[in-house]
Amino acid sequence: MDEKQKRDVQYWLESSEDDWKVANHLFEKSDYSYSLFFGHLTIEKILKGI
Fold it and tell me: How far apart are CA 7 and CA 14, in angstroms?
């Protein structure tokens, strides 16, 4: 894996962590539909990183 690929993987995984925090925050505020949306984004970005 070259350096660009490593940076890309790191970007997607770090971005997914941020989205997961937002999903949890929204869930705590009972905003379930947007929490689900950010949960979906989290999974999508993890898969892109893989």
Answer: 10
Question: Residue 44's CB: how many other CB atoms inside 10 A?
Answer: 13
Which stretches within the chain are classed as H helix? 3-28, 32-49
Please report the sign of the dihedral spanned by the C-alpha atoms of residue 48, residue 6, residue 15, residue 50. positive
Burial of 38 (0-12, 13-18, 19+ CB in 10 A): buried
Q: What span, in angstroms and rounded, lies between the C-alpha atoms of 48 and 37?
A: 17
How high is the pLDDT of residue 45? 97
Q: What is the pTM of this model?
A: 0.88
